[in-house]
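Researcher: I'd like a structural prediction for the single chain below. Treat it as a standalone chain; there are no partners to consider.
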Amino acid sequence: MVRRAKSIVIHRPVDDVFEYMNDVSREPEWQPQLIEAEQSPAGATAVGSRRRYVSEFMGKQLVNTYVVKVYEPNTRLVVETTKDSVLDATSEILWETVPEGTRVTMVLEGRPKGALRFVPASILESTFEKEVMTTLKRLKERLER
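Model: Treating it as a single chain, here is the predicted structure.
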């Protein structure tokens, strides 16, 4: 099981940061590995909403579907992959008001399935680490423009 948690402070109010990050259609703007992102049903996020992501990971195109398990606006979002995904994963995002603006913490936990389970754990861990940091830096750049 690979688990990574990273945080970054964004100099914007929590409402602004959450609103931007909660728009699934905008996720490819700040998540560099994402090619497509969509939510069903369309509209407001709720527990039980499904999010389908097409991403590129280690040179391969992957499709994963996540189900929203916890949805607390401006505070916390937890999503888990469905059985048909190429990864058993849980993703948690936390938003916290701090004097400088908003601290965003991303916690990713995953276990590869299928062919990905043969990739050495050290390679998966370093790739996860790099992707989480790149994602947070890109998010900060976009929101602080």
